[in-house]
Amino acid sequence: MQEPHVDTSLSKPILPSASYAQSIEQENNSTDLDKGFHSYIVVLNEKSGSADCPTLQGFIEERAKELNKTVHFIHLKKGMDLETELKDAAELVDAEVYVGAGGDGTLAAVAGSARLHNKVFAGIPCGTANVFAKEHNIPKDAKAAAELALTSTQVSPVDILDVEGRTFLCHISIGTYSWITVHTNHELKRKYGRIAYMFNAIKLMMKERIFRFDITIDGKKIQRKASTIMVTNAGSMGMTMMRWGENIATDDGIAEICIFKARTFGHYFT
């Protein structure tokens, strides 16, 4: 089989210490804030895999009232300029915290704006894989995660992957893994959850797909044959209990590069 050629540069992804509270001094891994936060913007993505936005919004509104906190909601829509929407809303309500409620993509988009606007970031997992939540022990129940976002006074720095100004919290990839992610229908994810991913994965594994990559890492050029290359900041695979690696951490300033050479269905299980 002829091997497609891919020229890709993975030259030391920018890993600033973008964090839940980038404005907080980061002498320690975590900081307790005595007074907590009072003003929040919550971005809701009703298209996310497990989102029940009306119920979640109602819960947040009720708890915010009980806690004497201000919450402004933004409902994510296709084509929306989220960064501008957040900036305008933050100026209006003097927001301290941006909260993303959705899948890992939604959380990354909100975190990217928090990074630009020097705000605190918190996440409510409402997606299918919810890798970021798993890595940071955020409750998988949306209401419990919302409660944590509204009441916690502890902030911790986390690394991010920066690709031409776009923020990624967990990983970036090229090859078969990317194909599975892109070609898994949103409605199927909402209906079947992780099974939707598995169906596409099995279809792809039945085909022999291998690529030739030219890679630049920390200025060093290498060439590899692989089915997938993953630059990851998170160990969890999300859909299973397996991990990309045991020593992968989101706060060590290091991005791991994983190279997969599986060619056939059997190779993925050996």
Structural class assignment: alpha/beta
Would you list the SSEs in sequence order as H and E?
EEEHEHEHEHHEEEEHHHEEEE
Give the CATH topology of the largest domain. Rossmann fold
Arrangement of strands in the largest sheet: 4-3-5-6
How many domains make up the coordinates? 2
Percentage of residues in strands: 15-25%
Number of beta-strand segments: 14
Give a quick account of the main beta sheet: strands, pairing sense, barrel closure: 4 strands, parallel
Rg calc: 19 Å
Q: What is the mean predicted local confidence, pLDDT?
A: 79
Please name the fourth-level CATH homologous superfamily of the largest domain. Probable inorganic polyphosphate/atp-NAD kinase, domain 1
CATH top-level class of the largest domain: Alpha Beta
Helix content: 25-40%
Unreliably modeled segments: 1-30
N-C termini distance: 21 Å
**What's the total helix number?**
8
Q: Examine the secondary-structure arrangement and name the CATH architecture of the largest domain.
A: 3-Layer(aba) Sandwich
The coarse overall form would be elongated
